[in-house]
Amino acid sequence: MSGMASEDTKYACVRYEGRYRDAWDDLVLGSQQHSILHSRAFLDYHGERFEDRSLVFLDKSANRVVGVLPAALHPSRTDMVASHPGSTFGGLLLRHVEPTAFRPFFDMAAEFYRASGVTTLRYKTTPSFVARQPDETELQHGLRHGNLVGSDLWSVLRLNDFRFHQKRRASITAAERKGVTVRQGTSTPDWQAFHDMLQINLRERHDTAPVHDFDELLDVNARLAERSQLYLADTKDGNLGAGVWLIDYGQGSIHTQYIASTAEGRNAGAVDLVLARAIEDGAAKGFRNFSFGVSAARDGELNEGLLRFKLRFDAGVVVHMIFDYDLQSLYR
Fold first, then answer.
1. Pick the CATH number of 3-151+321-326 from 3.40.630.30, 3.40.50.410, 1.50.10.10, 3.40.50.10860
2. CA separation for the pair 86, 169 (Å, rounded)
């Protein structure tokens, strides 16, 4: 089934195709709620890793894109579509904050998927701090009609008014006294050194591995262009001690995709200094929010130590929710 139109609306729901790419990204950039994770530049990076099931909503009379839903088939369930399995979030996106319009468009998507044999839609909400104006319509809809399957605390720092915790300020000052310096990484060797450090860091401290291998990291960096930045901290001996990969989500929010350090860097306070510089630069550039992401262990439970680390940068917390919708019994 290539498309579906509602009899009592002027809109149609169709499966995404490459010919909609430019119109998709135009809609994303014009929306008050968008992030770079909604863009095709980011979504298409996944290539054939996931079977794309993204949807486009069209004004039938004008044949104009008025909404999008990034989605793909769940990698382990052929009857489930997720929005998006390769992304932290990426729900239904309309151009404006329109609570009364959300359900009609959501219903078109639900009917489209149901007709194609999908029984469950896993819906990853977009954290409200990402939007230009807050919009938690999808949370209200999910709490009423979906099944909550994930709830994470997301740490976010408002850049117009922040004060580092006394302990954090002391660590930053100590790092400077110990000769730690911060620079922006731009070369392939910089990215290679960061990825090597990240691999060791995650293996030794969390028994896991980066989501991206080195080639994938370079690919994402190239796709995101100026929206991707790498900050590196060197110890006084010239060794790489810490680094943070930042992604400009859009709408004034910048996000720490990866934070990594070495034992030498941690002893010298390099992590605190590199994050402080990234935060201060973000504020100077006019960003509104600095996102540290979620503080969760591998099993999804709260990582209290990681959360405390972020809070000492004066970050607050936002709840990020994920819902499963049973498309066979929706609204019953």
1. 3.40.630.30
2. 36
